[in-house]
Amino acid sequence: MDYSSLYVSRIRNLCRQRGISINKLAVMSDVKQSTLDNIVRGLTKNPRVKTLHKIAIAFNMTLAEFLDFQALNDYSFEDDEEE
User: Fold this and answer.
1) For 58-70, b where at least 16 C-beta lie within 10 A, e where not — what string?
2) What is the Cα–Cα distance from 17 to 78, expressed in whole angstroms?
3) Which one of 7, 29, 38, 69 is CB 3.0 to 4.6 Å from 44, fit for a cystine?
């Protein structure tokens, strides 16, 4: 799994756990629907920290809590082909 897929998976899992659609998340986070769609569809590979922070707040989490999950913690950049 590549790096961007990890936070896409995190967003989808948190939405599923909380019963929130991606559309609802866009409203809750004040992130444009198109921006969130591009992130979730994998078109935006490296979203801004500000965007991820707004998404975290919508989930009632700090950015640190949002980014603190096992798959991301275990990720090795040594296997990453992009710089």
Assistant:
1) bbeeeeeebbeee
2) 31
3) 38
